[in-house]
Amino acid sequence: MKAAPPSPGKQVRSRNDGQIGFIVEWTDPRTGKPGLGVRLDRKQENIVRPYHEGMWEVVVRPPLTPLQVARVAYQADCALRSARGEYSVKDWRDLKEDARISFVEGLPPGADEERKALWAAVKEAVGG
Fold first, then answer.
1. What is the mean pLDDT of the chain?
2. What single-letter DSSP state applies at residue 49?
3. Alpha-carbon dihedral 91, 96, 98, 103, rounded to 10 degrees
4. Would you list the domain boundaries of the chain?
5. SS3 state of residue 26
6. How many CB atoms lie within 10 A of CB 33?
7. Residue 38's pLDDT band (boundaries 50, 70, 90)?
8. Which of 27, 37, 41, 80 could form a disulfide with 20 if both were Cys (CB 3.0 to 4.6 A apart)?
9. For residue 90, which of 106, 71, 109, 110 has the smallest C-alpha distance?
10. DSSP state for residue 124 in the 8-state scheme
11. Using CA atoms, how far apart are residues 67 and 123, in angstroms rounded to an integer?
């Protein structure tokens, strides 16, 4: 049974030269046929190659650790608090060890519903 092609947005690696790219919906300029392409991950360049099944493999990333998930969620929480005008937001590195550990476990007591919803969404999205 033939495997389904990867969906747009998936990261892929070339089996030939190891280049990284992302699957995009694309129309071949030579034939005018729509299909899938691979946009190479290069700054300042917009290079799209046609997607051929045997030439590209989907990049599978290991899940983030609970500490990494907490750091991402903490950054989202800081951005929300900063957008609200709360200026007492500390950088992750400036937190004491016990404060960082508590953020791995969840938000501090007294967090409002909007912060709790953002925290839960980030943790679900990145593997918490």
1. 87
2. E
3. 0
4. 11-58, 66-126
5. strand
6. 9
7. very high
8. 41
9. 71
10. H
11. 11
